[in-house]
Amino acid sequence: MRAAGRTLLAFVVAACGGPEWEIENISVDAHVRRRGVATRLMSEFLGLARQRQVEAILLEVRETNLPARQLYEKWAFAPVGRRRRYYTCPSEDAILYRFDFNGLLIKD
Ligand SMILES: CC(C)(COP(=O)(O)OP(=O)(O)OC[C@H]1O[C@@H](n2cnc3c(N)ncnc32)[C@H](O)[C@@H]1OP(=O)(O)O)[C@@H](O)C(=O)NCCC(=O)NCCS
After folding, report:
1. Which CATH number fits domain 10-100: 3.10.310.10, 3.40.50.10800, 3.40.630.30, 3.30.2130.30?
2. Is a pLDDT exceeding 80 seen at residue 2?
3. Measured at the alpha carbon of residue 97, what is the angle toward residues 46 and 51, in degrees to the nearest 5?
């Protein structure tokens, strides 16, 4: 996502292949956080996945990354597992999340 001055403000990186896609990262410039930018990105990404008839979206996130975890949970991603000491510097568990398209309404 770019502003008029062509500065990159936000991005989502995902592995998009097969019935399950995986979000590798989503990031918003610190100066424009809490203004709904990630919400818009997530809406567009999930809309694209739905168009492509994807069954589920997977991701993992640091356990203490509460802004990201709250974003995912707001979008009905469910915690489905934990990878112990998955991250380094500092060492930390990863929480695995899954968004399942079956039976869910997607926010536009
Ligand atoms: C996580 C991140 C992408 C959120 O981007 P954002 O544009 O600020 O998010 P939005 O404004 O769309 O907020 C959507 C929801 O996310 C959650 N959220 C976002 N920032 C939050 C914060 N600082 N504290 C708590 N919840 C937060 C809230 O549920 C929020 O909904 P609300 O505003 O109705 O409370 C952003 O904080 C970021 O880039 N973080 C650093 C990179 C990162 O950790 N990415 C995740 C890697 S797995």
Report:
1. 3.40.630.30
2. no
3. 20
